Amino acid sequence: MATNSTSSSSRVHSRSKGGSFGGSSRAPPPSFKGGINKGKKNGLPVLEGPPRDEAYIASQFAESYAGVPPPKPVYLSNPKGSLSNWAHNAYNKLPMYQASEGRALWRTTVSIPAPAGTDIIGTGDHRIRKESERLAALAALYEIQGMGLLDKAATLREHAVKGEAATSISITLSDGSAVDYERARQFIDYYCRRYKFGKPVVDFQETRKCWEAIMTVGGRRIGMGTASNKKNSQTACYLDVTQYLETCDADLWKAFVAAATSK
After folding, report:
1. Four-way CATH pick for 54-163: 3.55.50.30, 2.40.50.1020, 3.40.50.970, 3.30.160.20
2. Residues 153-199: pLDDT tens digits?
3. What angle do CA 235, 238, 244 make, to 5 degrees?
4. Looking at the domain 171-262, which fold is it?
5. Within 10 Å of residue 91's Cβ, how many Cβ atoms?
6. pTM greater than 0.85 (yes/no)
């Protein structure tokens, strides 16, 4: 569902399937261990609300968007791929999946941070984690269809590029920290030193309408920024990677802040 987003005041964009990352979602950053709720089943929480299965998702769409036709079958045959392609074509962003394990089901929530200030959200439940991800993507596609945007990705992308803020680009992290380019650069340098990856590598690509900056760390492409000029694309890339790393490991950001404060 569409909710207010406080994660970013910039035009920070990420590559999705079909682009430089070559997959339906961004690879975990080097050193990220991941893993959620690995304890015993009887110690896991009971998920709230009704199961977000395919029937529930379709019924919620019909109730919330009465009279609106469902997404075309071409979108629904591979929901994760369709969502990644749409996010790339609309905002040059990457869907972000968060999964949590319950006693009987996995619940996955997918979000696409939209430049307009709202996140597009989808939630899916299934006893198999990968199926819960598929259902989350399906729910997001239904939401996008209900908003009348599923067939308007190219128009959204054009507006996003034209509306890009050229100055005072910054993001806000989950703890409320405001981060500009210089702070993001310091954080990523700290991350690379801590895990002995060497300096980050940023490659640039120029397209007809914009510049793309792609960051590689430890042999993995972990972030991308798009802007109307080369300098701003680099700024957007550093901010994108900073936000991504903090999302994966909030303790890493806290350690960086503590280390910077102690100097």
Report:
1. 3.30.160.20
2. 877 776 655 555 433 478 888 888 989 999 999 999 999 999 999 99
3. 140
4. Double Stranded RNA Binding Domain (3.30.160)
5. 26
6. no
